[in-house]
Write a sequence for this structure.
């Protein structure tokens, strides 16, 4: 058997995702909705594991990080203070002939319109990407609110609430995983650019003189996360933003980029935001968000270092990074070589006969109670069942046969090497616990 990285097209992944229940177009039976997706049973498990790994990665030796869950809607005042009402837009251009709309900074117009080829465009206009709505029945300016385009602002707005109620001291972090909404002009590349997506953000609050060092610290810390979840680190790089690229709030910013089949693209942004956000919210709300330093007896506005990553973009990255095609005994197979801690299903039980269902069910229950995700796969030849599990990335398949009744052992088959090992059934949980700690082998 040989197993090596296989480059895979986006179309192949999209169809695998639908076929196996990872991702469906939203409102599929009504023809879908552009840039919005639903996650099926396996996709939901994969997302849970991504969040779990991210939460575990918040542990660090510099200070506590607490998690919050902010609201999805916020009043216009928040987005005025953050700069989003004024500045959160992309440049848009329309083809006058075919009426297609494009992001002018993201499209090659050298051969005319990418859709119809004609060369007849409108002027470039700015398009604000926030979804605006009204709260309640009253159509007044006070009732205007927006679906959040990032999770970060709920963290800044709650900075003082957390500081005074969560028994944390500077420096510390506030983290949040949750939905964000952007009316992207041209959603594309499946989960890469969506209109409704999920972010995992950390805002690290610290003294101004320490913020540069913390930026360096967080870059290293975040890179360790990618290694821990089994991503090929040769496909990850850090790119420092040029001065002209910096967002209005950032003093320094780096992108963590992944080498997708469509090029090196941003997977995560790590930014030194200075005191921008807390100062803005202090000015606009009239509430002082500065903190008092007991040592120097002076107030100061904390600086912020931010890490911001998209759950869905990471989901897509993991699919690209894990996809393999190889051959086992002359038969082609597709494998998603996820790290065991990331795989949606950890173990699939395969009773070799209907009669053996009862002891298998018992083992399955015990493994689930121990916190692993498991499936019982009873239909088809054993080869077929292995292929099915390989394609969804299940790292371990456990077969139970008539000998198991006598020797109380089961056979565990490894997804990547296809090697089989016979182990006592009552040691299966310990075996799985050990395997979960191992790095990806394929
Ligand atoms: P891009 O330049 O790709 O539009 P951005 O710089 O606007 O991204 P940020 O505002 O820094 O992105 O958002 C942080 C992270 O959130 C991104 O690195 C990405 O992982 C994720 N993200 C942003 N926009 C989207 C989107 N439309 N769909 C999916 N994920 C997104």
């Amino acid at each position: 058997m040989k197993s090596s990285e296989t480059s895979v097209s986006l179309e192949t992944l999209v169809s695998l995702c639908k076929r196996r229940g990872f991702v469906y177009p939203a409102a599929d039976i009504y023809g879908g909705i552009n840039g919005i997706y639903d996650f099926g049973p396996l996709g939901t498990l994969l997302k849970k594991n991504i969040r779990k790994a991210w939460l575990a990665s918040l542990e660090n030796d510099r200070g506590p990080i607490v998690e919050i869950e902010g609201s999805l809607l916020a009043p216009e005042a928040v987005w005025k203070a953050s700069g989003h009402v004024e500045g959160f837009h992309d440049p848009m251009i329309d083809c006058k002939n075919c009426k297609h709309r494009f992001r002018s900074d993201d499209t090659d117009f050298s051969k005319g319109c990418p859709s119809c080829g004609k060369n007849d465009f409108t002027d470039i206009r700015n398009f604000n990407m926030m979804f605006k709505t009204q709260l309640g029945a009253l159509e007044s300016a006070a009732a205007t609110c927006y679906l959040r385009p990032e999770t970060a602002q709920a963290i800044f707005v709650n900075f003082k609430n957390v500081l005074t109620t969560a028994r944390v001291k500077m420096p510390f972090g506030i983290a949040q995983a949750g939905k964000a909404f952007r009316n992207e002009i041209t959603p594309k590349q499946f989960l890469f650019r969506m209109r409704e997506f999920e972010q995992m953000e950390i805002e690290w609050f610290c003294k101004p003189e320490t913020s540069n060092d913390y930026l360096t610290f967080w870059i290293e810390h975040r890179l360790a996360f990618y290694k821990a979840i089994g991503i090929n680190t040769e496909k990850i790089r850090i790119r420092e933003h040029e001065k002209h690229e910096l967002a209005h709030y950032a003093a320094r910013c780096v992108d963590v980029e992944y080498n997708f089949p469509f090029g090196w693209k941003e997977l995560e942004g790590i930014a030194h935001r200075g005191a921008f956000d807390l100062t803005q919210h202090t000015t606009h709300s009239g509430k002082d968000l500065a903190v008092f330093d007991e040592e120097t007896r002076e107030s100061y506005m904390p600086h912020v270092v931010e890490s911001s990553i998209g759950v869905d973009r990471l989901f897509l990255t993991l699919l690209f990074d894990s996809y393999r095609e190889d051959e086992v005994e002359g038969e082609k197979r597709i494998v998603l070589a996820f790290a065991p801690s990331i795989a949606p299903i950890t173990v699939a039980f395969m009773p070799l006969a209907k009669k053996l269902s009862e002891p298998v069910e018992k083992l399955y229950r015990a493994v689930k109670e121990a916190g692993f995700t498991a499936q019982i796969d009873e239909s088809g030849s054993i080869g077929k069942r292995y292929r099915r599990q390989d394609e969804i990335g299940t790292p371990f398949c456990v077969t139970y046969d008539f000998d198991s009744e006598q020797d109380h052992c089961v056979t565990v088959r490894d997804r990547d090497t296809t090697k089989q090992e016979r182990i006592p059934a009552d040691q299966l949980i310990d075996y799985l616990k050990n395997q979960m700690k191992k790095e990806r082998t394929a």
About this structure: The first helix runs from residue 10 to 19. The mean pLDDT is 94. The radius of gyration is 25 Å. The chain has two domains: 10-86+145-319, 345-441.
